[in-house]
Design a protein that fits this description.
heterodimer; A: eight-stranded antiparallel beta sheet; eight-stranded mixed beta sheet; about 30% helix; B: about 70 residues; 2 helices
Chain lengths: ~500, ~70
Amino acid sequence: MEINIYLTDKVGSSSVVLDYLKEECHYTQKYSEYLIKNNYEEFISTLRNELVLVIEYPYVDKFYRDCYYNYYSSKLEHYSRFSLRVSIFEPGIENEDFENEVGKAKLQSKFLGYFLIRPTHPQIIGRNVISPLAFINNNFKSCFVRTDVTINSIKLIAEGFPHSSQDTETITCAETTIWSCMEYFGNKYSDYQPIKPSKIIELLKNHSFERQIPSKGLNVRQISAALKDLGFGSIIYSLHVYGAQFESLLGCYVESGIPIILAMQNSKNINHAILSIGREEITSDLIDKCPVSMITKDKTEIIDLNSAKCRFVFIDDNHPPYQLGLYDSPCDYYKNADWQACKITHFIVPLYPKIYLEAFRAKSFINSVLLDTGYFNIAPASKIHIRYFLASSRSYKEHIALNPTLNAKIKKIITSTSMPKFIWVAELTTADLVKGNPSMANGLIIVDATEANTTFMNPLIIGLYNDVLLTFAPKIRDFDKITLPYEPFHMYSGNLKSFSP
Amino acid sequence: MKKVKLAGYQEIIDNIKSESPSTTHTVLDTEKDYKVMEQVNQTMEEVKRDFELKNMSSQISAGNVLLTG
C-alpha cells in the first residue's frame, strides 16, 4: 500500500482531503464537499493563512483504531480503518528538508503540530496537538505538552495541548475531556499514562447501570471517578455550593497550571464538558476591576487576583482548540444563542494524589496566617492584592534562586528549606507593583500542600511580608519571626506558558 | 579540591540572630503567641467543617445529569 504525501498550503489542502474522503472513506462527491466546507475548512480557518501543510494518508491513528475495532467495525456501514494526517509548518520548508540532518533541524524549528482527519462523518476532525503559534489568535498563557511524532519518516516533537472533536458515538464531550486530560498528564509526567477511549469505558463499567456504547455522555461524578481510577486525587466543586468563591477557586487552579474539567449547563437541556487550560494576560484595567474578596475588622481589604475577569482558554471538542471565554459567558464563541447561555455549574480538578490540602482550605489558611496572627504588622485599612496558586517546589525554588531583586539571605533561607513536591504559594502585592513589567510582589506565603492538619499553623513553610520573615525552624519544630528588610521581587510565571511571539 | 559546605538554612538564621538579636523572636515562647495560634486553629476548624459540608454537597449537586456535549 502506497502512502500519499503532499506538501501544500491551506487552500490546496482541501482538494487532498476531498480525495481522501472520496477514495478512502467512499463518501460521494457532494457529501465530501459538504464535509470539507462545514468541517475541514471551518477548522483550518482559525489557522494562519501562510502556513505550509504536509499531508499523509492512509495513516494509522491509535485513537481512531481503538474506536474502530471496538465499535465501527461491527456496523453494517463501511468505515475505513485509515485516517489522514495534516502536519503544520511555518513557511519555508521544502521536500529536501526531509532528507538530511540540517533539514531535520529546520523542520523542527518550523514545526507547529498536527491534526488528523478520520472517517467518522460528520465529525471528521480527529486528535491533534497544535501549537498556539499556528493560530491567528494566540495572545494567552496555557498549559502545554510535548509529544513525539514521525512526519514523512522524520521524528519531530509537537508542542501544544491535546484536542479532538467528539464522534458522538464512541466518545462524547465527557470522554474527550478525560482523554485530553490523560494525554496531557501521561505525556508530561511519569506518574500517569495516556489512555484510549476503550479504557475509559472499561474504567466506568462499575459506575454505569446501562450499556456504555453508543455513548450517552457521562455525569460529573463519573468523570471524577474515572480520574480517581486513573491515579488522581480528583475533587468536585459546585457553583451552587461555593457561590461567590467558585470563580476564584477556578481561577486559582487555572493559575496553578492544572487542566480542569468544566461542566456547563443551560435551561434548554444543553449539558457540556470542556477543559480549561489557561487564561489571557491580566491587564491593568482588569486588576483595577478585581473585586474585594474580604474586609477585616480594621478595614484591611484583600483583593483576590484569582478573580480577575480575564478570558479563560478552553479545549472544547465542538470547536478548534484554544477557544477563549469569560467565566460569566464561557460559550460566547458558539453561534447558537442556546449554547451561548451556558453557565459553568461544576468543575473537576485532577489533583496530584498527595496534595491533601485543596484550594478552599489552603486559601483560608493563608488568609488566617496573614490576618489573624498579627505577625506581619499590617496597618489598618491596607489594601493587599493576593495571587494564590499551586507550584512544584522545584520550579518555585528555581524562580526564587534566580530572582534578581530578592534579598540574598531570604533567597538562601527559602531554597535551603525542605519542601514537599507541591506547595501552595500566595504572592502578596499592590496594584502598582502587579501592573509593572515585570509584575512584582512584596510578600510571599508558602504552604505545604501535603499538610491537611492546620492546627498550630502546621502547613506554613515561609511567610514574608512587611520586612517580617516567619519561618519554620526544622530542629525545634517552632517558628522564627525575623525582621529582615527586602525589596519587591519578581512574581512567578512558571505555571502557564505564553505563546505570543 | 577542598570541600566547601555552603551556608544552609540554620547557619543563615543563626547568623541573623547573632548579628542582631533584637530582630528575631521565637514564636510560641509567650502566652500571646499561644492565643494567636488558638485563633488560627479556631478559624481553620470552622473552615474545615465548612469545606467538608461543601465538598459533600458538591458531590450531591453534581447529580446524574449526563454531559453529552
